[in-house]
Every structure is written in C-alpha cells, then in structure tokens.
Amino acid sequence: MKVDTVILAAGQGTRMKSNLPKVLHEIAKKPMLAHVIEAAQQAVTESETHVVIGHGSEQVKSTLSNYPVSWVLQEQQLGTGHAVHQAIEHVASSDLVLILYGDVPLLKQETIQQLINAAQQTGFALLTVTLADATGYGRIVRNSEEKITAIVEHKDASSEQLAINEINTGIMAVNSEKLQRWLPKLSNDNAQGEYYLTDIVAMAVADGMTITAVHPTCEQEVEGVNNKVQLAKLERWYQQQLAEALMIAGATLRDPNRVDIRGEVTVGKDVIIDVNAVFEGNVTLSDNVTIEPNCILKDCQIGSNTIVKANSIIEDSVVHDNCDIGPFARLRPGTELAEKAKVGNFVETKKTTIGAGSKVNHLSYVGDAEVGAGVNIGAGTITCNYDGANKFKTTIEDNVFIGSNTSLVAPVTVSQGATTGAGSTITKNVPANELAIGRARQTNLGGWQRPTKKS
C-alpha cells in the first residue's frame, strides 16, 4: 500500500511575535518542521512527503533544503482543508494520505505507524486525545454506539459539545480516493470563514465509513506550538525524555533538568555528566567518561576514562582513552588526542593531532600541527600557522620539550628529542636532540631609575 504524507506548514504564527516562520522555531536546536519530516519518513520509509508552505516559504525551503520533500505553495491561508487541497494532485496515485502538522513537532514514529495501520483497516483513522482542559480544540462527537460522527471546532461548538474532553489533534490518515472526492465539497460557512479539513469526518460518516480513533502515548506528542511559552515547555519536556534515556543507558546525570541534548548522544557505562552540559550533533562518551559543569560537546568521540573539566568546548574532534582536558580548554574541528594526552586550561587546538602522553598544560594555541608522543609544550606556546593568506603546518616529533612562550613559525619541524628555550621564536627546523634558542640577549643596565610622577 502506497502512503504519501502531507505536512501543513504554511501558517505565519503571529503569536510567536517573530520574523522567523513558525515551523522553523527549534526544539533541541532542530526546526520543528524537521522533527515532523524525520518522524514521517522513518515511519513510512517509502512515503513521498509533500510540505505545504506559505508564510516565509523561501526561507523554509532554504533552511530544509537537504530533506527529500516536495514543496507545495499555499498562497492564501484559507484553512486546513484548503491547504490539503493544494497538495491533492501530488497524492493522486497513493492509497493512503497521512496528514501531519509542522508545528506539532514531537509526534513519535510508533504513533504514526499505529495511525497508518488503523487507516489501512477502515480507510480513515484520527489521532485523538482526552484533555482535562479542552479549551480551543475541536471536539470529537460520538453517537450512542461510541462511533465518531463529527468534529466540531471550539468556536462552532454548542454548550453540550464544549463539555466533551476528547479532542481532535488534526492528525489523520485517510483513503486517498475518498479524500480527493471530499475536499472540493468543503465549505467555509463557519465562524472563522475557513475551509476546515475536519468537515470530511461528517462526509465519511455519510458515506458509511467507520472512523477509527488512535491515541498517542502522552499529550506532549500532539501538543502544537503557538507561542514561545509553549515552545519552551515542549523543549523542556523533550529534554527530560532525552535525559532519562541517557540515565537508562547507564549515565549518571547530576541534575537531569540541567542538561541539553541537541542531537544523538551515545554513552557507555558509568559516564558522569555534571550540570549545564550541552551536546550537539553526534557525540559518543565511552565508559567512565566524566563531563564537568558547563561543557559543550559537538560531533565528537570521547574515549574511556577521559575527564573533560569545567567550561571546556570540544567540536568535531576525537579523544582517545585516559585523556585529561581543561578546564577552559577548546578543541576545535580536526583535533585528535592520543591516549593519555593532556590539554589543560586556556589551551586551544585546531586541526592538530597530539600524541600519546603529550601535554599542552596551559595558555597555548596549537593549530595545524602534528605533535608526537611524550611531548611537553610549555605555557604560552603558539604555532604561528597563518601568513595572512595561507595556513602552514608545524611538526613536533616525539619527546620534544617546548619551552614556555615559544613561537613556532610554520612551516617548521622540531625533530625528536629536541628542546626549545623559553621565549624563543623558532623559524628554522630544529635537528634531533638539539637545543634551539631564538631570542634577544639580556642586557642589565646599572644605575637605572624608574620614572617618577610629575606633580
């Protein structure tokens, strides 16, 4: 059975008080619409996805250009029924049409699959939920046999219907042929003057169809976002789910309410994550890794028994076992630390490999460099890798000792076992096991007096 997906994402979202199209506001640093597209395409692997856009359409298309979807423009926003009608020609060859919303970001793949399975049996399945306070939502009207007969929008509901707590989420899966027949019959004769997609329920009942109700695992799955308060609440709920998953996988979170996961985090056994850690992209933390407070890790792999001390940033880097990083260290893209390497406080690395057991303990910049094993790089060392136009490589071989405040002007090689004197500017290659000193000679001036302030 061929299932196509239509995602409604044309609304302006005026209550967001933002110039950004509503569906581009983020949950876990990912646009809400991206969450919906991914869930749909994971649930129905061979589905074609059609996204109906309107307000900020070019920005939406540009932001999500890497997703395999077709874009359908709704020039005038005349209601949900009108929006689906714009996409109807794209789903003519499908058997079922799955209808989702770009501002309902946390619907689970499993729930979508249940909805589709139900629709395959009856031709029409609705996702409904029971709320203690159903204010503002369309009500599910059932007959004496508990069969769904209609959906009545809040503004059009009678006092008796307003007492109903089962509400329509708007999410449904419908027989494609029937949908194509019903949509042209929709009317905008209602309080909003819009074409309601929900009116097809009454048409289905008139055609003798049985409408199946499917329920999500929790309310948050089907909560829409209309303002930034709702966005923040969903963000926090989603982060709690991700934090719980990490703890179930074996991590200890010092405070599950103070961790942000903005991607995929894989943890080994006995990982400890302290407060205010932020994870972005794909992050792997192996056994016994400790992440101290206020660290940011993005697209990186951290080996077993490594400690990342407070206020450190690691991006697009590989850290092997038993390393020691920080505090206040920054590992920029292309950094790789071999086993037992140490990068200390206020050290920045970029496109650099640091060999086993080597130390860059403090106050240094090491970029575009290859550092061997057993190297000690003293405080204040800088690899001068950029001439204003091009980058150049610094090579520091095994067991080298770099004295404090050394400037290494690339391209340059310091060979195995060599030493540089503190304060040196190294512009030439240093042979193995030699001492290189490149600094002005000290002069002591006797009888010199400090200047005094003039009155």
UniProtKB/TrEMBL annotation:
InterPro entries: Bifunctional_GlmU, GlmU-like, GlmU_C_LbH, GMPPB_C, MobA-like_NTP_Trfase, Nucleotide-diphossugar_trans, Trimer_LpxA-like_sf. Mg(2+) binds at residues 103, 226. The lineage of its organism: Bacteria, Pseudomonadati, Pseudomonadota, Gammaproteobacteria, Oceanospirillales. Pathway: Bacterial outer membrane biogenesis; LPS lipid A biosynthesis; Nucleotide-sugar biosynthesis; UDP-N-acetyl-alpha-D-glucosamine biosynthesis; UDP-N-acetyl-alpha-D-glucosamine from N-acetyl-alpha-D-glucosamine 1-phosphate: step 1/1; Nucleotide-sugar biosynthesis; UDP-N-acetyl-alpha-D-glucosamine biosynthesis; N-acetyl-alpha-D-glucosamine 1-phosphate from alpha-D-glucosamine 6-phosphate (route II): step 2/2. GO terms for molecular function: glucosamine-1-phosphate N-acetyltransferase activity; magnesium ion binding; UDP-N-acetylglucosamine diphosphorylase activity. Pfam families: GMPPB_C, NTP_transf_3. The keyword Hydrolase does not apply. It comes from Spartinivicinus marinus. Its EC number is 2.7.7.23, 2.3.1.157. Residues 229-249 are annotated as: Linker. In the N-terminal section; belongs to the N-acetylglucosamine-1-phosphate uridyltransferase family. Homotrimer. This is Bifunctional protein GlmU. It catalyses: alpha-D-glucosamine 1-phosphate + acetyl-CoA = N-acetyl-alpha-D-glucosamine 1-phosphate + CoA + H(+); N-acetyl-alpha-D-glucosamine 1-phosphate + UTP + H(+) = UDP-N-acetyl-alpha-D-glucosamine + diphosphate. Signal peptide: none annotated. It is found in: Cytoplasm. The keyword Magnesium applies. Residues 250-455 are annotated as: N-acetyltransferase.
